[in-house]
């Protein structure tokens, strides 16, 4: 196993979702998950660290899960915006579970809210955070106990787990709306709908042509839409 795969596997195996969101990912909308990711400081094992057992690193932020899309493996490396090791993680998951892993049918964006080093051992800090979330009654909050050096992989494990738990309902919703049907080129109806929406938005000046071009390229459909795409520039 490659060295970086070993690091990812270590991070995943040593990550525990202490508190999951009480709601799953929305099928036809954006889901905003507030997270607290707690880790022991990476310097805790050093001789100069002192009493680091009484300190915990708390990373707070929000993971934005966009409306689920029906995608092919071409999209996998683009699904973790804002994550330092996103591409490596996607490659690892694809090798481990196969190219059709359903948990990767979502696009995520990490919006970091800052990092703090607080007093108290990890378990103590987790108890305090649980109290805060209980008091605020926020259904879309999560606590993750992760690995400091690979904290973003620990966070991606949370998102991956939430997506897998949401999968059955999301697939049923998409099926009932006919979005899982493939056309003769093997393109999902959902992708065609997205492309049509992008054409309208570009025509109204609400989206950049580059965004539409990237979507067409991702599906290998630029040849089919090329004339229509170029016409957008003649209309301007």
Characterize the structure shown.
The relative contact order is 0.18. The chain has a 6-stranded mixed beta sheet with strand order 1-6-2-3-5-4, sandwiched between helices. It is elongated. With 236 residues, the chain is of the alpha/beta class. Helices cover 44% and strands 18% of the residues. It has 2 domains: 3-176, no CATH class; 189-234, no CATH class. It has 7 helices and 6 strands.
Structure summarized in a few sentences:
By secondary structure, this protein is of the alpha/beta class. The chain contains 7 helices and 6 strands; from the N terminus they run αββββαβαβαααα.
Topology:
Elements: H1 3-13, E1 16-19, E2 31-39, E3 55-65, E4 80-81, H2 86-97, E5 108-119, H3 122-136, E6 141-145, H4 151-176, H5 189-203, H6 209-219, H7 222-234
Helix pairs in contact: 5-6, 6-7
User: How much helix, percentage-wise, in residues?
Assistant: 40-55%
Order of helices and strands: HEEEEHEHEHHHH
**How many DSSP-defined strands?**
6
Poorly predicted residue ranges: 100-104
Report the total helices: 7
Query: How large, in whole angstroms, is the Cα Rg?
Result: 21 Å
Strand content: 15-25%
Coarse morphology: elongated
Rounded mean pLDDT score? 84
Keywords:
236 residues, alpha/beta, 2 domains, six-stranded mixed β-sheet, 6 strands, 44% helix, 18% strand
């Amino acid at each position: 196993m490659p060295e970086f795969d070993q690091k990812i596997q270590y991070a995943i195996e040593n990550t525990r979702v202490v508190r999951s969101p009480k709601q799953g990912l929305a099928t036809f909308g954006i889901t905003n998950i507030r997270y607290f990711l707690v880790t022991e400081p990476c310097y805790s094992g050093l001789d100069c660290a002192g009493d680091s057992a009484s300190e915990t690193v708390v990373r707070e932020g929000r993971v934005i899960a966009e409306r689920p899309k029906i995608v092919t493996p071409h999209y996998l490396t683009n699904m973790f915006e804002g994550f330092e090791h996103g591409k490596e993680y996607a490659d690892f998951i694809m090798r481990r579970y196969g190219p059709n892993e359903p948990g990767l049918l979502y696009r995520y964006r990490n919006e970091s809210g800052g990092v703090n080093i607080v007093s108290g051992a990890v378990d103590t800090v987790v108890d305090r955070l649980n109290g805060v979330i209980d008091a605020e009654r926020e259904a879309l909050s999560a606590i993750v106990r992760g690995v400091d050096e690979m904290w973003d992989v620990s966070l991606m494990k949370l998102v991956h787990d939430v997506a897998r738990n949401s999968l059955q309902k999301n697939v049923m919703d998409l099926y009932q709306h006919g979005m899982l049907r493939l056309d003769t080129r093997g393109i999902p109806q959902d992708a065609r709908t997205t492309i049509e929406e992008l054409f309208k938005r570009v025509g109204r000046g609400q989206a950049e042509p580059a965004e539409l071009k990237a979507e067409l390229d991702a599906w290998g459909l630029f040849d089919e839409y090329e004339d229509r795409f170029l016409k957008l520039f003649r209309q301007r």
